[in-house]
Design goal:
Number of domains: 2
Strand content: 15-25%
Number of helices: 12
Distance between the termini: 42 Å
Number of strands: 12
CATH class of the largest domain: Alpha Beta
CATH architecture of the largest domain: Alpha-Beta Barrel
CATH superfamily of the largest domain: Enolase-like C-terminal domain
Strand order of the largest sheet: 5-6-7-8-9
Shape: globular
Largest sheet: 5 strands, parallel
Length: 363
């Protein structure tokens, strides 16, 4: 039976501040509470699609929420066709450029629209996109910030919960010696059977990234992520050419075109577009097609509730980045077992807000 045609009626926009179970300390700063904006896209036919966006800086929440509310005037009454809506919104905001809260807002609407379509069809997003409901390989990224060798090693043991065999470490200490000491302490704590990635969060110059990367080549890391500025494709290409360890970038691609430029420049061995920064599920699926054409393994960045469905459809699917930041907001957090996220076979994304908790966490 064909799913009903839906039309957009309203957007309910709710900013929240969610305490993290483990604080994240990177070269860019410390995050102990996650500023998010919950999006409820309501249709005239009574189906509501939900999504959220995450804004690391709380100062961006108010303007992003206001922008989302204002965007309703551009799509109110329109048929709920995510690809057409995405093209329409991108065209309207073309002169502002394709980065920042504009793209984040478009992405939030896009993901909520897909969620509504999945619910109307009675299909999980993975099935709606032609994939299957299955387990998706994940790595634990809920901690291991810049906390020094001893504290980081202790936390690494905690990250083995749910049977994880892969986890990610933040690096970018003032000296190479500290980076090496922390890496070795964590490797010793977790043992030889666990793979360890590292993330510099763009904090190094190309020259320093080469120096530290060469030193880390002998430490058995699975990948080195964002060693220098994400948009310095030439610099990242030089790093990827010289290092033995795989280079991962992509969370700061702000469009499908950004990923195309990075691949054309051979700026990375692996790619990991972020569902929000890339512009939503519609744009992420285009990136998956680019990755397939180049034979590049594609991972997700954050947003595991949508990323699990996206990776279940991606031909070169690699890793899901597991964070549990949205779990307190959900009636039924997604299950993780043996280091895999279980893609729920529920209509849409499978997210349902725990309204009692949401009410307490409203900004």
């Amino acid at each position: 039976m064909a799913a009903p045609v839906l039309h957009i009626r309203s957007l309910d926009i709710r900013p929240v501040l969610v305490p993290l179970r483990r604080q994240v300390v990177t070269a860019s700063g410390q995050v102990d509470k996650a500023p998010m904006i919950l999006i409820d896209l309501q249709t005239k036919e009574g189906v509501t699609g939900v999504s959220y966006i995450f804004l690391p800086n709380r100062l961006a929440v108010k303007p992003a929420a206001e922008l989302l509310r204002n965007m309703l005037s551009l799509i109110e009454g329109a048929e709920l066709a995510p690809q057409a809506i995405e093209r329409h919104l991108q065209k309207k905001f073309l002169l502002l450029g394709g980065t920042g809260i504009t793209t984040a807002a478009i992405a939030g609407i896009d993901m909520a629209a897909w969620d509504a379509l999945g619910k109307a069809a009675g299909l999980s997003l993975a099935r709606l996109w032609g994939g299957e409901t299955k387990r998706v390989l994940a790595y634990n990224s809920t901690g291991l910030g810049l906390m020094g060798a001893k504290r980081t090693a202790r936390e690494a043991e905690d990250l083995l919960e749910f049977g994880f065999k892969h986890m990610k470490l933040r690096l970018g200490y003032p000296t190479l010696e500290e980076d090496l000491a922390v890496t070795r302490a964590v490797k010793k704590a977790i043992g030889p059977g666990i793979a360890l990635m590292c993330d510099f969060n763009q904090c190094l110059s190309t020259a320093e990234a080469l120096r530290r990367g060469n030193a880390l080549d002998g430490e058995g890391l699975y990948w080195i992520e964002e060693p220098t500025r994400a948009d310095d494709y030439a610099g990242n290409a030089a790093i990827a050419r010289e290092l033995k360890t795989l280079v991962q970038i992509g969370e700061n691609f702000w469009s499908t075109q950004d990923m195309q430029k990075a691949l054309d420049a051979n700026a990375c061995d692996l790619a990991m577009p972020d569902p929000m920064k890339i512009g939503g599920a519609t744009a992420w699926l285009r990136c998956a097609a680019l990755a397939e054409a180049r034979g590049v393994p594609i991972s997700s960045h954050l947003f595991p509730e949508f990323s699990a469905h996206l990776l279940a459809t991606a031909p070169t699917a690699h890793f899901l980045e597991f964070v549990d930041w949205a779990n307190p907001l959900l009636q039924q957090p997604f299950a993780v077992k043996d280091g895999h996220m279980i893609v729920p076979d529920r209509p849409g994304s499978g997210m349902v807000w725990n309204e009692a908790v949401v009410k307490k966490l409203l900004i």
